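Quick one: structure for this chain?
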Amino acid sequence: MNLGRVCGTVVCTRKDERLDGVKLLVVEELTIDAKPTGKFVIAADAVGSGAAETVLLVSGSSARLTDRTLNKPVDAAIAGIVDAVVMDQERGKK
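Got it. Here's what it folds into:
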């Protein structure tokens, strides 16, 4: 799983019929501290996310396991909308 930020929408006039009703979004991957990586993916939206939201990305076979993407030809899916990332306060202290 990775963090990402929704930054666009993909519109397809022709696509595999199994993708009918699936919203496709452009997502920029983020580091754990929410900094952009410059890497983008197209992801099927399984949770109703929107523009500029921080999301949880799944890829590979995991992307085909949500209710909205089950057995659909997708390689990346948005599986959650992130409210916060809370790091352990002791992390990094030695």
